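Quick review question:
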């Protein structure tokens, strides 16, 4: 193999390693729960790798011994049987020890996932819909619920207890950098604790096939210091404050027709519950659960042709002319 071919092979071999880091990787843990699962994964690889090497070594020894017995007359005697029996016992003992280590490691990891018991944790409800996420925070001061969508904010160093449910089919909540996945089942609530330790943006995803647009059911996760999180939550609790220019006024007027039937904008007459709450939509990073970037163009594209961008989504194509669609996008882009 020439030098160029070797370089290409090395580069090709390195491609899978790109999935081991980044904003959506269990091998790059950024929280207590993710660390516990990562440690369990490393332990599993060590145990399973050791057993694999033991099996390969035993197989190689058996092949070499069989070749020797075939070449040397009288080499096969009762001593070989006794050695084989000892080898089987050693291999069986190693497997039992390895499995015992994995059982203990799994028990320790399970306890670490809910180590706080929910004491003093921030309360959050997440409900999966085809194909978006309703997210509600319990205000620690007032006790009321503050609703947003498709973007989860978490205070660094604090535990957040997330109550998971589904409004339609089975979904699965997964933020690999922060914690393991947990199913969201219609008619019941599962509980997941999140204790992030690293600031930054991460990516969550539905990890259970839930229909045509399953791959486009993502959400952004922002881990920030507690003071920044508290300020963000206080802003989210406030009603919408829209722009006052004529284009925004026209957009609000158009929005109050077909859009307000499904969407809520607190502080206005829009109180729909079928779709995401849009009170502070412009403060989010994406449109339609990660389908488009949060820009005026992204908003206008989604308003104009949602079925073309995300076929099967619950948002219908609304017959707005270009001027009205632009006005609604301008109005929503001001809801920060």
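Suggested answer, residue by residue:
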């Amino acid at each position: 193999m020439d030098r160029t071919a070797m370089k290409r092979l090395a580069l090709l071999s390195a491609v899978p390693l790109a999935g081991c880091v980044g904003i959506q990787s269990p091998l790059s843990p950024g929280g207590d729960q993710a660390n516990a699962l990562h440690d369990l994964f490393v332990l599993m690889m060590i145990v399973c790798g050791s057993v694999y090497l033991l099996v390969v070594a035993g197989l190689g020894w058996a092949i070499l011994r069989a070749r020797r017995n075939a070449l040397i007359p009288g080499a096969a005697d009762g001593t070989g049987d006794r050695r084989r029996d000892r080898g089987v016992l050693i291999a069986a003992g190693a497997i039992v020890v390895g499995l015992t280590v994995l059982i203990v490691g799994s028990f320790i990891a399970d306890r670490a996932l809910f180590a706080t018991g929910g004491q003093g944790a921030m309360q959050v409800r997440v409900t999966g819909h085809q194909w978006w996420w309703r997210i509600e925070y319990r205000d620690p001061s007032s006790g009321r619920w503050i609703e947003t969508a498709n973007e989860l904010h978490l205070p660094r160093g604090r535990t957040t207890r997330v109550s998971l449910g589904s409004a339609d089919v089975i979904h699965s909540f997964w933020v690999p950098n922060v914690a393991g996945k947990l199913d969201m089942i219609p008619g019941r609530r599962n509980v997941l604790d999140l204790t992030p330790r690293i600031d930054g943006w991460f990516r969550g995803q539905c990890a259970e096939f839930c229909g045509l647009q399953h791959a486009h059911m993502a959400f952004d996760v922002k881990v920030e210091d507690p003071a920044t999180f508290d300020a963000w939550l206080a802003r989210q609790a406030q009603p919408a404050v829209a722009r006052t220019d004529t284009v925004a006024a026209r957009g609000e007027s158009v929005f109050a027709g077909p859009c307000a039937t499904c969407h809520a904008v607190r502080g206005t007459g829009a109180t729909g519950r079928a779709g995401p709450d849009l009170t502070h939509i412009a403060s989010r990073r994406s449109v339609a659960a990660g389908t488009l970037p949060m820009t005026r163009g992204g908003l206008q594209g989604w308003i104009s042709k949602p079925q073309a961008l995300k076929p099967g989504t619950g948002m219908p194509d609304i017959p707005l002319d270009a001027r009205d669609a632009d006005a609604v996008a301008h109005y929503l882009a001001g809801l920060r």
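Why it works: The two ends are 59 Å apart (CA to CA). The domain at 122-225 is CATH 2.60.40.420 (Immunoglobulin-like).
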